[in-house]
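This protein record is not my work; I was only asked to verify it. The record follows directly below this note.
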Amino acid sequence: LKTIYSQEKGLASTASLFTLHNLGYQGLFWHYDLHLTGLGWELFTPSGLEFFGKINLMKGGIIFADLLNTVSPTYRNEILTPENGFGLEGVLKNREKDLFAVLNGVDYEVWNPSDDPLLPGQYSSTGLEKKKDCKNYLQGVFQIKKKAETPIIAIISRLLDRKGLDLISQVFPRLMELDLEVILMGHGVDHYQSWALDMVRKYPGRIGLEMNYQDNLAHLIQAGADIFLMPSRYEPCGLDQMYALKYGTIPIVRAVGGLDDTVEDYNPQTEQGTGFKFKEYEPEKFWQTIQRALDLFRDKPRWTRLMQRAMAQDFSWAKSAEAYQQLYWKAIEKKRNR
């Protein structure tokens, strides 16, 4: 829009909003491929597309878009720091006044336990009985022991360090000393896949494992589990923790990015909160947070109220769509005033 199509009728006045999802994936290419883009070499400079000798397409979007946004407010602030900017924090700092945030939304017509056709029984915050049926069915699917009072901890994730698998693997032996069961669905790097298979063999009847993502199974896991783990190193937004909230499966998350924006840490004094959070990326802090959740799980009245608060949260696309519409108009106004 700013170069090749700048003189095209109908496009010269077109505004642009560049949505940044994950700064870890920037679109880096060999600089001699620049001609494939149709762009001129005058753009291959430190103030343009050049990034440590390569072409960086994300950098180009950040520089040339009229407005920018991330998919959660906390991630918007995090990417301005060296820890989470992936080398682009300086470029983003220059555009800080044009950088906004819109939290991702959830499609509750698809993810809603009250009318989810993929579940053996539907339930709501005012009628939780059928969640027990989902748990029983889930235990049967994975052929783990059917104990109604035994908590099921679920993980639906790519098996990567950035998703916190290093933390999970470090606390796992201590988890297995407790009376609980674990359901893990996801695939990733070889050493974590091997680790997961080893754990299934080491703790027979207590771990359910599915190495490939299956949407219908994801719904069942969210409904049948009691606790959901998401200890990410960084998380632009995340959707699974929002699904978990709606299904009354209490999330344990690291307080980063969209996880921090969507999960309120449980306060035993006020009985406020919708899940459990920890900040420092350390196994011991993660373990202490898991223990907090398991302690509350034994207090059924309080746990039920926590589930009901979690299920009452609204992260529908209606709010996000309205925020995007406002940003589109803001971008158009900025373009007109140039």
About this structure: The chain has two domains: 17-104+318-336, 129-311. The chain is about 40% helix and 15% strand.
